[in-house]
Amino acid sequence: MGKPGKIEVVIPGQPGTLGSDKLSDTPCSNRCPTRAMTNSPILFLATLLATFLALSTPLLAGEETVTFAFFPRGWPPFEMTKDGEMRGAALDIFQAIMPREMKKDIEPIPKPRTLLHSPSDKVYTRMEAKGWMPEGFDYWWSAPVLKISDVLYSRADAPFEYHGPESLAGKTIGCVRNYTYPKVEALFTTGKAHRYDVNHDILLLRMVKAGRVDAAILDDITAKWMIRNSEDFSPEDFHVAAMPVDSSELRFVFNRVAGWDRWLPSINARIRALRDNGGLRRILNKYADSPIPRTR
């Protein structure tokens, strides 16, 4: 495997037609100030103040907050902590695609997905794939942001190619603990393949390099980033299977706060613009030379 260049970004196809973004035509009250009222300076000023507040209410209502539920353990290059600062490509994309008039916060949450299906008046979001989220809950989903693939990494001197789930039979496959891999999960549950769990992707690369597993399943963007930014690895250490185990479209997911979906047309339009104008690629390449965070 040669030295990887910039992180490759696969742009999903254009999403379906967005919902209507028309403003409702709500009729004004039929009551108007009488001539006697307009002749009174106090009542006239009171009327002006009431009119101003009425017109200002939609603007004030639009000043809402959305909070990115940050995973402290990290998911490089999307979510990382450096010198106590939360950073990463997912946070930059979040800042870029949320409407300007919206307040944007970031909050570290040990189990961030739980906030997305818990009853709350507070709006939380993360960048996830639909297949990664627990079933039985309702979410708001954005249009696709980018596509990532789960691929098999093996030792360069013991290359392993993936030809479908049955090709894993009898193999020990490194996985991240609590992650699910729908396309091959049946092999693990039936014992046809042995699943070896670790706590972090970088540990999978170490296991592969040490020959303690036959191969490991990693998402392509994270694996390339780690190999590029760690002194422990070189691209020449690994063989990457040509056929992906699975692919996923990353989107922003929001807990289902009533009425909040009115923001989705604006968010989806900003996602399309970020993909089309090269902004997404620039964000990912910004982290190409970031030092790898320490992992316990």
Structure keywords:
2 domains; D-Maltodextrin-Binding Protein, domain 2; disordered N terminus; single chain; 10-stranded mixed β-sheet; globular; alpha/beta; two-stranded antiparallel sheet; disordered C terminus; 296 residues; 28% helix
Q: What's the arrangement of secondary structure elements?
A:
Elements: H1 35-38, H2 41-62, E1 65-70, E2 80-82, E3 85-87, H3 89-97, E4 103-108, E5 123-128, E6 139-141, E7 146-155, E8 172-176, H4 185-190, E9 194-198, H5 201-210, E10 215-219, H6 220-229, E11 238-240, E12 246-255, H7 264-276, H8 279-286
Parallel strand pairs: 1-4, 1-5, 8-9, 8-10
Antiparallel strand pairs: 2-3, 5-12, 6-12, 7-10, 7-11, 7-12
The computed structural class is alpha/beta
Fold-level CATH name of the largest domain: D-Maltodextrin-Binding Protein, domain 2
Helical percent range?
A: 25-40%
Q: State the shape.
A: globular
Describe, in plain words, how this protein is organized in 3D.
- The two termini are 28 Å apart.
- The chain is globular.
- It has helices at residues 35-38, 41-62, 89-97, 185-190, 201-210, 220-229, 264-276, 279-286; strands spanning 65-70, 80-82, 85-87, 103-108, 123-128, 139-141, 146-155, 172-176, 194-198, 215-219, 238-240, 246-255.
- The chain has 296 residues and is an alpha/beta fold.
- It folds into two domains: 65-147 and 247-286, 3-Layer(aba) Sandwich (D-Maltodextrin-Binding Protein, domain 2), CATH 3.40.190.10; 149-245, Periplasmic binding protein-like II (D-Maltodextrin-Binding Protein, domain 2), CATH 3.40.190.10.
- The strands form two sheets. Strands 1, 4, 5, 6, 7, 8, 9, 10, 11 and 12 form a ten-stranded mixed beta sheet that branches. The chain has a two-stranded antiparallel ribbon with strand order 2-3.
